[in-house]
C-alpha cells in the first residue's frame, strides 16, 4: 500500500533534508569553482547548470533514502557516473529490461512512464505506480525548495 | 422436444448430420459440417472431463438444442457480454442465430473447448444461460465478437450473477483467464501479456491433448496479438486492445479457455484484486496530479501523470539553470533553511515547523542579511523551545515579504499565525 507521507507535518521532512543537502552541494560547487562570481562563459554556465541539476537530484535521492527504488536508482546512477569519470569502465549490461515487467497496453504510456521514473524499468506496473506517486511528491518538494532558494538568493 | 433428445444422442455419438438437420435451423452448410463433427466429437471427449457433472443431464436439454450449432461456444463466451442487455431476447431467435452462427465459424474448430463449460452452468440459472446463448447467437449473427473478446467463461451459476459487473469491467476480466492464473501467482513478477499467452498455451496443452495443433498455431499467432482464428483460447492482448482501443477486427473470434475445475473463480478473483489494486493506486495518483479529478480512464490518467512528471522535471532543469547564474553566499544556508521551514509550514501545527534537531540553531544566528525579519534578533534564545513571540515576529516579517509565489502559502494569509497553531 502506498503511504502518502506528508512532508509538511513531518518535522524531519524531506524538504528540510533536501534543502540542507542541496545547499551544501551548491556551496561546495561554488567554492570549487573558485571565486569567479559569474560564469559568463556559456559552456561554464551549462556545466554548472548540469552540475546543479545533478546535485539537486542527488540530494533529493539521498534525502529520501534507500527505501524507494527510484532513489536507489538515482544514487546508483550518480555513483556510477562519478566512478566512470574517474575510471572509465565497461558498462554493465542493462539488466533491467530482462525482468519482463508486466505490460499494460496503454499504448506505450507505461513504457514512457518507466523511462521517466528512475529505476522504473525493472518493476511491475503496480510498483511503478507506487514509485511514481512518491517520485511526484518528492519532485514537487524539490521544485518548491529550489524556487525558494532561488528567490532568496536573488533578493 | 424430441429433436432435442435426438440431438443429445447425436452429440453423444458424434453424429453430425442429425445435428445439422436440426429442425429449428436451416443451418449446416457443408463447410460447417466438418466443424460440427469435429466439435461434436471433441466435445464428446471433453465431456468426459473430470468435472463429474453429467453433461447430458436433464438440464442439458435446452442447452443441447442450442449446442447443435457451432455457435454454442461463442455464445458461452459471449454470454457475459450480452447477458445484462439481452436476457429477455432470444429463445425464439436461437435457431436463426445459431444458423447464422455457423456461418461465422467456418474456422473455429476449437469451439469444443467451450462445451465442457456447459456442465458448469448446470443447475443454476439455466434460463439465463439459455437466453444468453440465444442472444449471443443473435448478436453473433450480426456483429463480430471483437469488442467483447477475452471474457473467460465462468460458471454460469456464479458468473451470470456477476456477469453484469464483469461485463462492465470486461477490461478487467480480460486478464483473468483462469488456468494460467496459477502461474501468474507463482511468479512474483507478473508476466507480460505475451508470457501470459504462452502460459495460456502451456496450460491447454497439458489439459487438452486433443488440440496439439491448435496450441502450436496459437503460439505462432499469439505474437500477432489479435485474431487468433480457430482458437478457443482467451486472447488477453486482443481483449485488452479491444476494450481499450476499441478497434474491432473482423477476425476476432471469441476464444475461451477450457475451464478446468474450481480454480477459475479464485484466479479470476485474484486478477480482479490485482486490477483493483492498480486502480486504487491510479486514484491516489489522481489526487497527486493537479487537475485530474475529472479524468477517468487509465490511459488518460497515465497521460496526465506522464505530462506532470515531465513538467516537474523541466521545472527542476529550469530552476537549476537559473541557480547556476546566481551565486548564493555561503553563509546563507542556515537562515535560508530556517525561512524555508517557516514558509513550508502552511498551516501545519507547531510540531511541523521542520526544525531538525540537527540544525544547530541554538547558537547565535547571524543577523539576516536581507533584513526582512523585523524584530527578529533571535540569536540568543535557542530555537528548540521555539519562543512564540519570536516566531510571531519572524513570521509576520516573512509574510510581509511576499516571499514566495507558491500558491499554497497564500493560504496562510495575514492570519497565518492562527493557522500555524502556535
UniProtKB/TrEMBL annotation, chain A:
UniProt keyword terms in alphabetical order: Transcription, Transcription regulation
Keyword hit for Transcription: yes
IBH1-like N-terminal domain: residues covered: 12-81
GO biological process terms, semicolon-separated: regulation of DNA-templated transcription
Pfam families, sorted: IBH1_N
Record has Transcription regulation as a keyword: yes
Top-level taxonomic group: Eukaryota
Protein name (Swiss-Prot/TrEMBL): IBH1-like N-terminal domain-containing protein
Species whose genome carries this gene: Sesamum angolense
UniProtKB/TrEMBL annotation, chain B:
Alphabetized CDD domains for the sequence: bHLH_AtBPE_like
SUPFAM superfamilies from the UniProt entry: HLH, helix-loop-helix DNA-binding domain
Domain of life from the UniProt record: Eukaryota
A cellular component term, taken from the record's GO annotations: nucleus
Pfam families: HLH
Gene Ontology terms, MF aspect: DNA-binding transcription factor activity; protein dimerization activity
UniProt-recorded name of the protein: Transcription factor
Amino acid at each position: 500500500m502506498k503511504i502518502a507521507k506528508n512532508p509538511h507535518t513531518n518535522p524531519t521532512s524531506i524538504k528540510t533534508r533536501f534543502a540542507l543537502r542541496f545547499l551544501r552541494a551548491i556551496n561546495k560547487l561554488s567554492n570549487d569553482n573558485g571565486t569567479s562570481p559569474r560564469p559568463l562563459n556559456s559552456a561554464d554556465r551549462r556545466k554548472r547548470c548540469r552540475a546543479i541539476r545533478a546535485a539537486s537530484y542527488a540530494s533529493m535521492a539521498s534525502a529520501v533514502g534507500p527505501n524507494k527504488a527510484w532513489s536507489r536508482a538515482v544514487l546508483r546512477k550518480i555513483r556510477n557516473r562519478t566512478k566512470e569519470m574517474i575510471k572509465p569502465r565497461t558498462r554493465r549490461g542493462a539488466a533491467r529490461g530482462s525482468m519482463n515487467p508486466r505490460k499494460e497496453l496503454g499504448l506505450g504510456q507505461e513504457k514512457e512512464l518507466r523511462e521517466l521514473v528512475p529505476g522504473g524499468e525493472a518493476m511491475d506496473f503496480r510498483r511503478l505506480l507506487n514509485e511514481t506517486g512518491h517520485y511526484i511528491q518528492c519532485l514537487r518538494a524539490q521544485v518548491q525548495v529550489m524556487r525558494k532558494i532561488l528567490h532568496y538568493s536573488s533578493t | 422436444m424430441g429433436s432435442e433428445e435426438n440431438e443429445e444422442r447425436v452429440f453423444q455419438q458424434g453424429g453430425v448430420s442429425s445435428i445439422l438437420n436440426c429442425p429449428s435451423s436451416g443451418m449446416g452448410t457443408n463447410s460447417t459440417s466438418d466443424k460440427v463433427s469435429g466439435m461434436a466429437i471433441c466435445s464428446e471427449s471433453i465431456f468426459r472431463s473430470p468435472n463429474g457433472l453429467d453433461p447430458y443431464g436433464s438440464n442439458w436439454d435446452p442447452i443441447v438444442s442450442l449446442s447443435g450449432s457451432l455457435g454454442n461456444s461463442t455464445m458461452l463466451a459471449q454470454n457475459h457480454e450480452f447477458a445484462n442487455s439481452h436476457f429477455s431476447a432470444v429463445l425464439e431467435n436461437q435457431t436463426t442465430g445459431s444458423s447464422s452462427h455457423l456461418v461465422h465459424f467456418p474456422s473455429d474448430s476449437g469451439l469444443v473447448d467451450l462445451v465442457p463449460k456447459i456442465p458448469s452452468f448446470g443447475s443454476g440459472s439455466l434460463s439465463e444461460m439459455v437466453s444468453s446463448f440465444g442472444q449471443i447467437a443473435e448478436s453473433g449473427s450480426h456483429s463480430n465478437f471483437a469488442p467483447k473478446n477475452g471474457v473467460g467463461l465462468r460458471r454460469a451459476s456464479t458468473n451470470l450473477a456477476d456477469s453484469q459487473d464483469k461485463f462492465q469491467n470486461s477490461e478487467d476480466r480480460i486478464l483473468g483467464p483462469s488456468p494460467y492464473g496459477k502461474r501468474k501467482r507463482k511468479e512474483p513478477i507478473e508476466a507480460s501479456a505475451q508470457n501470459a499467452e504462452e502460459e495460456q498455451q502451456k496450460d491447454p496443452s497439458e489439459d487438452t491433448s486433443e488440440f496439439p495443433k491448435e496450441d502450436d498455431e496459437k503460439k505462432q499467432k499469439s505474437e500477432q496479438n489479435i485474431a487468433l482464428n480457430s482458437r478457443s483460447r482467451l486472447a488477453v492482448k486482443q481483449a485488452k486492445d479491444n476494450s481499450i482501443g476499441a478497434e474491432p477486427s473482423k477476425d476476432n473470434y471469441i476464444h475461451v479457455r477450457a475451464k478446468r475445475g474450481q480454480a477459475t473463480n479464485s484466479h479470476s478473483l485474484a486478477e480482479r484484486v490485482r486490477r483493483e489494486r492498480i486502480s486504487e493506486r491510479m486514484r491516489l495518483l489522481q489526487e497527486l496530479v493537479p487537475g485530474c479529478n475529472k479524468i477517468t480512464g487509465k490511459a488518460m490518467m497515465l497521460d496526465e501523470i506522464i505530462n506532470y512528471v515531465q513538467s516537474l522535471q523541466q521545472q527542476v532543469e529550469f530552476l537549476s539553470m537559473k541557480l547556476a547564474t546566481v551565486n548564493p553566499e555561503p553563509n546563507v544556508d542556515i537562515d535560508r533553511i530556517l525561512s524555508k521551514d517557516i514558509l513550508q509550514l502552511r498551516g501545519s501545527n507547531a510540531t511541523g515547523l521542520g526544525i531538525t534537531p540537527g540544525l544547530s540553531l541554538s547558537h547565535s544566528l547571524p543577523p539576516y542579511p536581507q533584513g526582512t525579519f523585523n524584530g527578529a534578533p533571535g540569536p540568543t534564545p535557542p530555537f528548540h523551545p521555539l519562543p512564540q513571540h519570536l516566531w510571531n515576529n519572524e513570521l509576520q516579517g516573512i509574510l510581509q515579504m511576499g516571499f514566495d509565489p507558491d500558491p499554497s502559502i497564500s493560504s496562510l494569509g495575514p492570519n497565518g499565525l492562527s493557522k500555524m497553531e502556535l
